[in-house]
Amino acid sequence: MRILVLGGDGYCGWPTALYLSDRGHEIGIFDSFIRRTWDHELGVQTLTDIRPLHQRIAKWKEVSGKEIAVFPGDLTRYDHIERVLEEFRPDAVVHYAEQRSAPYSMIDREHAVFTQYNNVIGTLNLLFGIRDIVPDCHLVKLGTMGEYGTPNIDIEEGFIEIEHKGRRDRLPFPKQPGSFYHLTKVHDTNNIFFACKIWKIRATDLNQGVVYGTVTEQTMRDPVLVNRFDYDEVFGTALNRFCVQAVAGIPLTVYGKGGQTRGFIDIRDTVRCIEIACDNPPAPGEFRVFNQFTEQFNVKDLAEKVRSAAKKLGIEAEVKHYENPRIEAEEHYYNAANTKLIDLGLEPHYLDESLLDSLVNIALENKNRIDPNVILPRVTWARGRT
Ligand code: NAD
Ligand code: USQ
After folding, report:
1. Rounded distance from Cα 217 to ligand 1 centre (Å)
2. Strand 26-31, strand 68-72: pairing
3. 199 pLDDT exceeds 90?
4. Is residue 108 part of a domain?
5. Distance from the alpha carbon of residue 72 to the mean position of ligand 1, in angstroms
């Protein structure tokens, strides 16, 4: 297949592009590199020493013999994506190209507006581009488990059968997102669902949980192929952050009571899920939703797991409950369905000791790059950046 990876320079996009290239697909990467600019804006750097995209691509060609085409461009500029769809003519577009940090979207009005514009308008441009240029192309869109929030009922995969006043229907599962970022994913979902209905576009919305890990079989082949590993308060996610905090000697930052339960997924499963979605396209006009996570954890238990993994490596880490910068339920029911990708062949990598060891070891190897000043939370939901 010819697969265009939007956001292919990012944390999920780069290993996805390599994995799909390795599996014999023809890959193009479309990216504006704005993610690297946000690091400059925030004064942070990823734990790992990521290289410029042209170096990454050249090294991949050297180690695999495979070419990846690069299309610099901004998805919020229709002329940029129009040109690439016309030239590359993808069979599938994997859309990762959004601002994905909840705290970034809560910094202030400007960052909230930027996030909503970047994500919603970018996806809308893509939908028009697919309709007009590659109508049979399969849109594989990254959504988030956070679209559902934490309802007091089981979470289904996108839709729920409801009986109301004696009548039944299959309706979109209710959405209760927890940040202006998470809200953009709900807006995208509505726009994509509508476009499928009226234009017969085929789309898969992957509601992904929090991703952890950094290494895949392909990124391991050379240090130049190394992936991002964010640990700062804005872009770092729970498990990855805890591993770095253990090594930095900072008490692990459990927000509030720590009963917040989320779906989690290993980055090696992220790339496989994308392949599964591409290999099994929906029918024209079909809008389908898969919940893309493999296990549920609450953040307190996750921090404890990291603490014991660090202990085995001779590191004494402390787990601390910090005042929660977010407004979210800290103790709640959570039970989300995730069978559709498994039914299509996903064999999950579950979080085990060896993976935790390897993550703590990556943090140890890069200890000199850890900046302790960017770890504690400063962005609050109530007041923005303090
Ligand atoms: P990332 O920030 O590392 O990568 C996103 C990439 O998209 C970056 O390279 C960035 O430069 C690019 N980009 C952003 N806006 C763009 C635009 N307008 N035009 C062109 N390129 C643009 O993020 P990630 O962690 O790889 O996440 C990828 C996707 O997966 C996002 O949509 C995110 O919401 C979703 N997701 C991520 C996680 C996670 O834990 N990382 C979990 C669930 C869902
Ligand atoms: N949390 C802590 N301590 C920390 C960091 C986070 O307790 O140091 C808590 C948060 O309060 C939250 C949970 O851990 O309850 C998850 O936070 P996170 O920062 O790991 O993840 P989140 O903000 O939800 O966002 C990440 C990605 C986003 C993706 C989402 C999937 O950045 O792109 O959409 O995970 S999901 O969580 O399923 O919505």
Report:
1. 21
2. parallel
3. yes
4. yes
5. 15
What is the residue range of 183's domain? 2-368
User: What integer is the mean pLDDT of 79-100?
Assistant: 98
DSSP-derived pairing of the beta strands 319-322 and 287-292: unpaired
Confidence of residue 138 (pLDDT cuts 50, 70, 90): very high
**Which amino acid does the sequence have at 193?**
F
DSSP letters along 52-94, please?
PHHHHHHHHHHHH---EEEEE--TTSHHHHHHHHHHH--SEEE
Q: What is the dihedral of CA 229, 233, 237, 242, to 10 degrees?
A: 80
Q: What is the share, in percent, of the chain residues with pLDDT greater than 70?
A: 100
Rg for the chain, CA atoms, rounded: 20
The CATH number of the domain holding residue 231 is 3.40.50.720
Name the helix (H) or strand (E) containing 305: helix 299-312
Q: Is residue 204 part of a domain?
A: yes
Give the model confidence (pLDDT) of 254-311 as tens digits: 999 999 999 999 999 999 999 999 999 999 999 999 999 999 999 999 999 999 999 9
Rounded distance between C-alpha atoms, residue 296 and residue 26, angstroms = 34
344 contacts 197 by C-beta, under 8 angstroms: no
Task: Provide the domain count of the chain.
Answer: 1
CA 63 remoteness from chain centre: 27
Ligand showing the shortest atom-to-Cα distance for residue 380? 2
For the record, the structure tokens of 45 come out as: 């750097």
Residues with a CB atom less than 6 Å from ligand 1: 7, 9-13, 31-35, 74-76, 96-100, 118, 122, 142, 144, 208, 210-211, 228, 237
Distance of CA 144 to the CA centre of its chain: 7
